[in-house]
Amino acid sequence: MAIHVGDRLPEVTVFNTSAEPVSLAGLAQGRPGVLLFFPAAHTRVCEKELCTFRDGLAEYNQLGVEVYGLSVDTPWTLAAYARSLGLAFPLLSDYNREATRAFGLEISLRGLPGFSQRAAYVFDASGRITWAWVAEVASQEPPYPEVAEAVKALVGARV
Hints:
- 31% of the residues lie in helices and 25% in strands.
- It is α/β, with parallel strands linked by helices.
- The strands form three sheets. It has a five-stranded mixed β-sheet. Strands 1-2 form a two-stranded antiparallel ribbon. Strands 6-7 form a two-stranded antiparallel ribbon.
- The radius of gyration is 14 Å and the shape is globular.
- The termini are far apart.
């Protein structure tokens, strides 16, 4: 079952880079956010995507919006990846693939099953999805200006 605009973040468990469980539905906690699914750490397109959000993070923070990256990599791999890229936003591990399957994003890459398709979701302070984008192919980058516009529209709607 895929998650669509209007749905709420699902009640699934992911893990932070310290391998502590995190409720995906609990990410909102009264704040809007951007949730970025990416296929795998230490890959060219994923690095470009996460660094683009890293470089624009001040604007999201100024709007009161949290940014999260999520992949099926282990928490320890994601911790090393975040350090290597100098990321100041959390990376979450969906090693058990609960979130990937809940969002309907599970794909195979080069014959290896169990990856997440690249996708971006904007959610409001209650955890309701207000904007969504899913890549047609894993190498496709998110439409960065559209993500920013969806965030600005959401923040403007709640002011």
